[in-house]
Amino acid sequence: MAVHQGFNPNGFSRRSFITQASCFGAFYALAKTIPLPALAKSVGIDSRVSSTPLVDKGFASVRKVGNGLYATISDPSKGATTYCNGGFLVGKDAALMIEGFSTVAGASFQMEALRSVSQVPVKGALDTHYHHDHSMGNAFYGARGVPLWAHASVAQRIVDSYVPLQGADKAAVLGSFEKRIKDAESDTERQHAQGDLNVLTGLFELANSSMLALPNHPIDPAKLPMNIDLGGGLTAVLESLPGHSGTDILVRVPGQNVVYTGDLLFSGIYPVAFDDKATISGWRATLAKFASFDKDTLFVPGHGQLCGREGVASLREIFDDIAAHAENMFKSGVPVQEATNRYVVPDKFKNFVILAWGFTIGPIIAKLYAEWQAK
Fold first, then answer.
1. What is the rounded distance in angstroms from the CA atom of residue 202 to the CA atom of residue 223?
2. Which of 55, 165, 222, 372 could form a disulfide with 207 if both were Cys (CB 3.0 to 4.6 A apart)?
């Protein structure tokens, strides 16, 4: 994670590591500010979606969303054990797990849910991308001999992003963010800076309370799409699409019109776009592709509630709104930071969660500026 605003984790030395983990602290405090949106009416009446969850621990619930398909939906406001969404696919011969989550306890929770419905061997556990909330719990799978699947770049991105934080001086890591709060010239700037500091503090604590496990089954994106036969007629398709992290892999079940998107889709939440490999034009193209899927497609987003194509439409509209604002500012010669501070959330999206300004709206505007300047 190459976080902007003066923080370069690659500036620290690397070191080897092994796996195990759990965490909370500031990460948990941050999670409590992110409530889960209500289940959309259109999804609530979808016959594929079970009316009651298979299991509900508050911080996450697992719900059947198809024949052999299950979605793990997190509610961070009730705990950060899982934090992101995931799920599992259960065929006659094997199962596929989706996400390592933020803690080993989160991965363990999902495995327990799987074992409550099937004892088939687990073919693999897929990290949809390398970010900490999707991979810090990998150790649970690794310790049990479950192959860890991910985009071929994920292992190195985990090493480059999170190993340097382990044992690092907290003041050195967070100092520039604290300085931004002190130097803020307005309440708006101060609030944005505080939000960014909260996220980084949570990440720092998570990295220092976790032992990292690297994927050992790298997937070459050039060889995707790839069919995964789990038996009994259940076939999943792995695809790599641009947008969120440069390492994104989604899982489609075309036979049932269900898609596990990872963080290529946020539902009821502003998109997180800080990653140095995130591409706004690529992401918008990916969302346009999602919008072209069958009208009955059910999406399991990386964060937020289950949704249909209306969830895709909302995220596209958010990108359109930010882009329109950014283009107006760019053509008027307004500096990128001022353009970021001037953005106003439309009334239509007032209830959408914003993790932190500098991880969502700020980098989207900055990346759009960069794309236009490159032209």
1. 36
2. 165
Report how far apart, in Å, the C-alpha atoms of 307 and of each of 73, 301, 312 are. Answer: 12, 8, 8
Tens-digit pLDDT profile for residues 331-364:
999 999 999 999 999 999 999 999 999 999 999 9
R_g of the chain computed on alpha carbons: 20
Spatial distance between the Cα atoms of 174 and 104, rounded to a whole number of angstroms: 26
Check if the beta carbon of residue 155 is closer than 8 Å to that of residue 162. Answer: no
Which two three-digit tokens encode residue 313? 């439409």
Question: pLDDT, tens digit, for every residue of 3-20?
Answer: 323 233 333 222 322 223
Q: What is the 3-state secondary structure (H, E, C) of the chain?
A: CCCCCCCCHHHCCCCCCCCEECCCCHHHHHHCCCCCCCCCHHHHCCCCCCCCCCEECCCEEEEEEECCEEEEEECHHHCCCCCCCEEEEECCCCEEEECCCCCHHHHHHHHHHHHCCCCCCEEEEECCCCCHHHHCCHHHHHHCCCCEEEECCHHHHHHHHHHHHCCCCHHHHHHHHHHHHHHCCCHHHHHHHHHHHHHHHHHHHHHHCEECCCCCEEECHHHCCEEEEEECCEEEEEEECCCCCCCCEEEEECCCCEEEEEEEEEECECCCCCCCCCCHHHHHHHHHHHHCCCCCCEEEEEEECCECHHHHHHHHHHHHHHHHHHHHHHHCCCCHHHHHHHCCCCHHHCCCECCCHHHCHHHHHHHHHHHHHHC
pTM: 0.91
234 vs 67: CA distance, rounded Å = 8
Pairing of strands 298-304, 258-267: parallel
Q: Can you tell me the distance from the alpha carbon of 256 to that of 274, in angstroms, rounded to the nearest whole number?
A: 33
* Crossing angle (nearest 10°) for helices 309-331 and 361-374: 60
Give the mean model confidence (pLDDT) for residues 278-300. 97
pLDDT tens digits for range 123-167: 999 999 999 999 999 999 999 999 999 999 999 999 999 999 999
Backbone phi and psi for residue 359, each to the nearest 5 degrees, phi listed first: -115, -5
